[in-house]
Every structure is written in structure tokens, then in C-alpha cells.
């Protein structure tokens, strides 16, 4: 995408990226699952490719730096008009800046950070690369959700850093908060209490649209991935939680209207 494309309002998830140990095997998995093709991208953090679907750039995959022992996980990037100022705000509000701010060639400027509960996310200030295109098509990211112990502990952090509006789901046994930008829900925080995975802790999770969830789940297994939950029906449509061969978890969903 080019600079002439509409920029994302601050706080809007605009890109997802995955850091792995084996780039070739990961490309093969997602290429077969989602029909992605790949082009080289900025190399500031090491070997990196952008996934394309019908000509749209939809996601990034890079090689994990050898000196970093981070979980292999999909990471959403949230839009910012000034990533340096956002980095300062993250620190001031109790978060941690792990990488950056740094320029990714002429594409834009980025930060990789974690919230006070330890969930990792990216921040993207667009230049030539605005973010993901073709959103809503099968094989594209359509939603991002923070899984954490409880919404109250981190909601104020994200509201302070990105200016989100908040809309809690009123339920006695469901701790869920929708984050909105300019009146539109763009992401959510899901508090799962003691259900938080001990091996992962608080984390962001990405949902990818698919034509047929059951078929996608079967394909994940054939390609060497794993099924973690589902398929099952929800208020957002039929979905499942799966993991790629390196263990990066993500969700596949056939949306019932807006996710």
C-alpha cells in the first residue's frame, strides 16, 4: 500500500507479525493454509517477509533473533501518529519498550512493547506501508483480542496510551471489554482469571477469516499444526483455536457479521 491510502486512526490494529525460528517451513504452512504468497520486507530485525493475498499485504513473518528468547506468537501492531511519543507514554504508564523506536526502511517506524501484565504488542507509525489490506477476505486478520487475568488491571493502560473508548460486556461470569476508536470497536480485552495459560501468561491473539472453519482445522493438522480448541459456534461465528508447527497460536473464524 502507498502513502495515498487512508491512514489508520491511532490505536487501530493495522498489521500482524510473527517471529519464528524456521522461516521456510512457516511460509510453507501459512501458504498452504491461507493461500499466501511472500515478498521480502524490511530486514532491520533480521530476515523478514510480507505475506500477500490477491495482491494485498496481509501479514509479516520474520526470523527470531538468536539473542532473544521470546515466545513464538502472532503480534498485533497498533497504529500511532508518533511512535516515539507513544513509546514514552508506554513507559510512563507502566509498560515496557523492548525494541525501538526504529525505522523499517521507508515503510514506517515501529516499537515492540509489553503492557504491565506482560502481553507483547507492536506500535506502527506508517510511512509508505500503511498496514494490512484486503481485510475481511478469507486468509486475512479480522480481529485482535488481549487475553489477560482481568480487564481492570490493564484497561487503563491501553486507554491512556491509545485513547480508546471502552464498552464492557455486562455479564456476571464474563469479563470482556471492547476497545473502540472513533466509535468503532477495533479490539477487545478478555479477562480469563485463573484460566490464563501458565506457559504463555497474558497475550494478544489474532483471528483470521476462513471460508470453512472445520476444513481449516483439518488442514492445520495435515500441515503439522495443532488444534487447541474447537471448532465451536460463538456469537461472532464459528471458530477454532489452533497453532502452527512452531506453536504460534491463532484463531480461525467464519464471521457472522462483524467480529
TrEMBL record:
It comes from the Bacteria. InterPro entries: Anthracycline_SecMetBiosynth, Glyas_Bleomycin-R_OHBP_Dase, Glyoxalase_6, VOC_core. PANTHER family: CONSERVED PROTEIN, GLYOXALASE-RELATED. Residues 12-126, 140-255 form the VOC domain. This is VOC domain-containing protein. Pfam families: Glyoxalase_6. Gene3D superfamilies: 2,3-Dihydroxybiphenyl 1,2-Dioxygenase, domain 1 (3.10.180.10).
